[in-house]
Amino acid sequence: MEFCRRVLVVFILSQIVCTGAQDDAEEVACSPGFQVKQYQVEYDGGFLKDQPLLKVVFDDCAENQDVSFEVSHPDFLIDEDLNLVPRRDVIDSGAVLFVHGLNAHADDMAQVDIMGAPPRSPQTLREIVGLGDITPYRTKRSLLVPPMFVPENQRAPFPRSIGKVISYDMKDDHYFRLTGKGADQDPKGVFSINRRTGEVAVSRALDREAIAFYHLQVSTTDMSGNLVEGPVDLDVYIIDQNDNRPIFKESRYSGEVLEGSPSGTTVMTMTALDADDPNTDNAVLRYIILRQSPEKPSPNMFYIDPERGDIITVISPSQLDRETLPTTQYELEIVAKDMAGSEVGLTGTATATITITDRNDHAPEFTHSLFQASVDEGSTGVVVNLTVDDRDDPATGGFRAMYSIINGDPNQSFEIHTNPDNNEGMLSVVKPLDYESSMFHTLMIRVENEDPLVPDVIYGPSSTATVYIAVQDVNEGPVFFPDPLMVTKWENIPVGSFVAMLNATDPDFRQIQSVRYGVLRDPAGWLSVNPVKGMVNTTATLDRESPHVHNNRYSAVFMATDNGNPPATGTGTLIITLQDENDNAPYVVPSVARMCEDAKEVNVAVIGARDKDIHPNTDPFKIELGKQLGLEKTWKISRINNTHSQIMLLHSLQRANYNVPLVLTDSGFPPLTNNTELKVQVCTCKKNRMDCNGAVTPVTDLLLLLSLLTLSILCEYHPDLQSFVDKE
């Protein structure tokens, strides 16, 4: 009976039933499925969208719960009132429609003939049902091949008959032949057909999870093997058996739920898979919690939705308190059972570990309301560590403390930071304290968490504490005032001249102490100080042009030491701004000039004057030739500006080095003059190139210079003499 109910047939084969099933049906008052198997509707050029065409009659003998219908043409459907309705305007309906009805109690098919409709492309049951790509019976001539169904995991004996193929034109010399995968192709020999009767048999147990569907072909041949009819498709479907137990993707799952969460909070979802047919109860799973560990405060703290696998909280929010629970982790043994959870279902298990996570429902509290510390004046660093208690999770911002000074530090002399290792507050002095100004400091400290508290929790009095700090007196070094001390003096003042009077006082005014002065750093060794009075005098000449003077300023450092126990020393700086005197004569730059031996070439050089003094003891400079006789016949100096002039060679000279006497004078009062020499290299110039190599010894003697000048003039008028000079 069950076999015949599962066989999907088109209308023609719906008349063929098993004999045993027919006998049983007579005893049953209701036959599940379509009560009318064949319907007709007139075709009048097409069908309009949402206009019912007819009403099918379907009864599963169990109140038609969860019945699903599918129509072979995708543009038609069966609505809630069992009407056949077009989804859209349809013209190409074809001449026949198949309607498939399916639920847990019935699996049946009906046929709708559309009278007068033009033919449509061949239809298949692939458009009808969700059992796979089922191919309808197709008749070619008189060969009738119904689909067949085989339960998996059948036991011996084999072969077992699974159905029969019929040919209305079968002759005595005709034979049935079965081909395709499962017959004469791999896996070979799974199915066979009786050559004479058309009975199809299976040769061994099958596994639906390996192959769920076989597509074969049936044909008839004559005795010589020549094709008579066919081939016609034969589809064999493997009926699922519950031979696979549910399997969880993982053996252990992890989830979290925040403490205090309301009952019904979803924690996590457990998912198991079953390899059996998802369209049967064999793969319909139900979930249960088999065991909870630990069982306190309640063995039923959690519940699992039997169908979805969602684990939700059952315990009240007040009991779901991380700080009072015996543990922060609970383990649940989850069982998934197929067959919709029935007793005969197969099971699979997994473990769910649920962690109760923390929320900031406890404010931090100081372990003491008063902390005390002492610190030496003038020192910095940590002076006291403040400790707090917090019952929240140390790994969260609901535990980590943040400290702040809310009172008692108007000068920002203190800072407080959290020690990340132990959550303590490290109170530090960042600006040195002065015992003489204040011997005691009282601070108010507040502690909070990084994360905000939950709405029903507030920071109480224990979240503040008082810190009492006593400052210890330390012998401090004398302090110079002003520091630096700045004075202005002329350079070159007489040795022993007064420079400045130092002033250093001892800040320890509660003690009676004396101060003595000394020189700590005097780079040029120009100064001395009276050890008692602090008077500074010169011990050498002050020179503004000294390398120890920068930007006209000379710096020296002095120290003052008290007679405390132990003695303390302070330092102060004296800065002397030196005023310039005209004590440096100007000098020529550059010291060497180059010219061509032919006065027609490059015969001019630019020279300048410089002075170590500063304005007004520098430029404008006067640059003149020396007072030697005859220089003005060979050289000429012309002023360019306040600092530079040009020197010109008036006639050609032999290649050599010449020292030209110069007189340089600055503009100081009184002015200073420098008698110096300029080295002039007279070089050979050819094609814009100057060759100064091999110049003879500098000519400095005026008589020799005049002699060379005379010789040069003679050579211009006596070429033979010039040739002689060249040879020499």
TrEMBL record:
Keyword Secreted tagged: no
InterPro entries, per database record: Cadherin, Cadherin-like_dom, Cadherin-like_sf, Cadherin_CS, Cadherin_pro_dom
One BP annotation, GO: neural tube formation
Segment forming the signal sequence: 1-21
Topology in the lipid bilayer: Lipid-anchor; GPI-anchor
Keyword Nucleotide-binding: no
Top-level taxonomic group: Eukaryota
Entry GO CC: adherens junction; catenin complex; cytoplasm; side of membrane
Domain Cadherin: 150-248, 249-366, 367-480, 481-588, 587-700
GO molecular function, one term: cadherin binding
SUPFAM superfamilies: Cadherin-like
One Pfam family it belongs to: Cadherin
Compartment annotation: Cell membrane; Cytoplasm
Alphabetized CDD domains for the sequence: Cadherin_repeat (cd11304)
Main location: membrane
Keywords: Calcium, Cell adhesion, Cell membrane, Cleavage on pair of basic residues, Cytoplasm, Glycoprotein, GPI-anchor, Lipoprotein, Membrane, Metal-binding, Repeat, Signal
Classification via PANTHER family: CADHERIN-13 (PTHR24027:SF80), CADHERIN-23 (PTHR24027)
Described purpose of this protein according to its UniProt entry: Cadherins are calcium-dependent cell adhesion proteins. They preferentially interact with themselves in a homophilic manner in connecting cells; cadherins may thus contribute to the sorting of heterogeneous cell types. May act as a negative regulator of neural cell growth.
SUBUNIT field: By contrast to classical cadherins, homodimerization in trans is not mediated by cadherin EC1 domain strand-swapping, but instead through a homophilic adhesive interface which joins two elongated EC1-EC2 domains through a region near their Ca2+-binding sites to form a tetrahedral, X-like shape.
Protein name: Cadherin-13
Species assigned in the record: Astyanax mexicanus (Blind cave fish)
